[in-house]
Amino acid sequence: MNNINIAYCTDSNYLEHVAVSITSVILNNIYNSIHFHVFLYDVSTEEQQKLQSLSQQITIYNISKNELVKYSDSLNKKITHINRSMYIRLSVPRLLQGIVDKFIYLDADTLCFSDISKILNINIDSVVCAVTPDSLNKENMLKNQKRLSLTSQSYFNSGFLYINVSNWLKTDTENKANRILLSSENRNLIYPDQDALNLVLQNQVLWIDPKWNYLFTWMNDNQKETFFYNKESLPYIIHFTGARKMWYQEHTGLAQDIYNFYKHFTPWASTPLKSYKYKMRVNDYRIYAKSLFRNKQFFQSLKYFLTYIKLKLVKK
């Protein structure tokens, strides 16, 4: 039986969510041989032990501060819900050299819904990695192409990467991405490491079915509450993109119900969901107002909209 290797990178803030993601993979792949490689930064021994207790098929790697000190937090100023631990993914192929030949990299905000053994049928011998699009809209893809002056007509999302370790190292992908990230001319990098990887890996990737990394933001409100019930169209992996994650108590719905189901099987089962109100950004109030209005909660909608207007004026 061929082994499927999956890597995650996280700090203490996202450890619980990695555990939930791993659990979703395990419960949907009980007949597959899967090994998880989890790269941790700034996670206590106690929390590491909790993660390790989840499965014997988890290997933990501690990342030293020296690996990440070069990445300034200012690189992330445009996207406040991430931190420098996201850059660990660039070094994972180097750190797994001699241990695995190929592996799937997954972001923490992903859930698996299917048997993923078909990944072994995808040939990545002649490319650095297999990738999925960041958008299903051609105009959005062209915007990113123009923004970064890409020769490729497509732009991938780096929350899922099926990586050929040898080819990643041969093409010096990590160092090339770092040169872009650490350059003083990186003002156009809205999604720093994702943008850098798109620049470095132009025409060196294999595009595969978006069902391997289906973005939650591609769904409309109705689909977000019904996606689970059609087995034929259900993606292998759903990537819950955006700042308003289903693991915040305010974001109720089908996604949160499924997240809580998988969470029940982790050592974090009794940990309550955290509130999103301390992370609210200006545009969140506008989005909440629209959502509440659609649900005919007019008073709450007005309250959020007035707060949005007030904050918008203060920002100016």
Briefly say what this structure is.
The chain has 12 helices and 10 strands. With 316 residues, the protein is an alpha/beta fold. It folds into 2 domains: 3-215, Spore Coat Polysaccharide Biosynthesis Protein SpsA, Chain A, CATH 3.90.550.10; 280-316, no CATH class.
What does this structure look like?
The relative contact order is 0.13. The protein has 12 helices and 10 strands. The protein has 2 domains: 3-215, Alpha-Beta Complex (Spore Coat Polysaccharide Biosynthesis Protein SpsA, Chain A); 280-316, no CATH class. Helix 7 crosses helix 8 and helix 11 (282-294) runs antiparallel to helix 12 (298-315). Helices cover 36% and strands 17% of the residues. Strands 3-2-1-4-7-6-8 form a 7-stranded mixed sheet, with helices on both faces. Strands 5-10-9 form a 3-stranded mixed sheet. With 316 residues, the chain is an alpha/beta fold.
Note the topology.
Elements lengths: L2 E9 L3 H13 L5 E9 L3 H8 L5 E5 L2 H4 L19 H8 L6 E5 L3 E3 L16 E5 L4 H11 L7 E9 H6 L2 H9 L10 H9 L4 E3 L6 E2 L5 H4 L12 E3 L14 H10 L18 H13 L3 H18 L1
